[in-house]
């Protein structure tokens, strides 16, 4: 990539040495396969520990009532960031925030579960259906 259109500062940050820095984080398994596990700018730091939102989202998606999930970090004076999950439900389904929080807590390591789960009617998305977490963070900050 040569750079971002008319955004020289963004280009310098993303392509400092000719290699594109996407912000994707991945891992390689014992067979040599690579997996994208999250994005660097979406990581949550809670109490000095790094929390991967995607792990929490995948646990939420295992619940039969959950249609979509987005996990973000929100500022917290004590922990640095707190984990918040926003969830939409499948048509005709009903589940409470406390039930979802308990469900996910049993599937994740200690401290990596959301402290707040909000059931919302919809999540902001791109024209291709990707959930826009930056818009969620912005809306919560205002």
TrEMBL record:
Signal peptide (residue range): none
Domain AMP-binding enzyme C-terminal: 56-130
Taxonomy, superkingdom: Bacteria
Coiled-coil ranges from the UniProt annotation: none
Pfam families reported for this sequence: AMP-binding_C
Protein name listed in UniProt: AMP-binding enzyme C-terminal domain-containing protein
Database matches in Gene3D superfamilies: 3.30.300.30, Luciferase, Domain 3
